[in-house]
């Protein structure tokens, strides 16, 4: 039996979104993260509407993650493609964007986005530190 607390990354992100009064958010990540419910449903259960890119943008994001970011290739052209995807999410009504894959933070920073950025890696790590300091 595990005796340590577990922090689900989507729960940590949901808490941060709600603290920032974001109730409609775009989700970027791997194709699986964007299309399956294991991540999205945890946000929806907390009252947050989740918007995902259209099929073509999902493929662009997924390809950049696996063929570039995962191998340490950071390209300005790919940053511009992500910016278009983020702008498309904004046009669909998103008030923020979740960087739902650890590698996306290598490419996209707040200064690159027309929406507030929620980097799951940073949020998850901060919540773990806060929990550790409470003990």
In short:
The chain has 135 residues and is of the alpha/beta class. The protein is built from six helices and four strands.
Description:
With 135 residues, the protein is an alpha/beta fold. It contains 6 helices and 4 strands. The protein has helices at 9-19, 31-35, 37-44, 55-67, 76-91, 120-134; strands at residues 24-28, 49-51, 97-99, 117-119. The chain has a 4-stranded parallel sheet with strand order 2-1-3-4, with helices on both faces. Helix 4 (55-67) packs antiparallel against helix 5 (76-91). The relative contact order is 0.19. The mean pLDDT is 96.
List keywords for this structure.
135 residues, alpha/beta
Q: Widest sheet: strand order?
A: 2-1-3-4
Instruction: Name the helix and strand elements from N-terminus to C-terminus, one letter apiece.
Output: HEHHEHHEEH
Q: How many runs of DSSP E, i.e. beta strands?
A: 4
Give the C-alpha Rg.
15 Å
Task: Provide mean pLDDT, rounded.
Answer: 96
Strand content is: 5-15%
What is the number of helical segments per DSSP (H or I, 4+ residues)?
6
- Main β-sheet: number of strands, strand sense, barrel status? 4 strands, parallel
Query: Percent helix among the residues?
Result: 40-55%
**SSE-based structural type:** alpha/beta
Cα end-to-end separation: 19 Å
Low-confidence stretches: none
Approximate shape: globular
Chain-wise SSE layout:
Layout: H1 9-19, E1 24-28, H2 31-35, H3 37-44, E2 49-51, H4 55-67, H5 76-91, E3 97-99, E4 117-119, H6 120-134
Parallel strand pairs: 1-2, 1-3, 3-4
Helix pairs in contact: 1-3, 1-6, 4-5
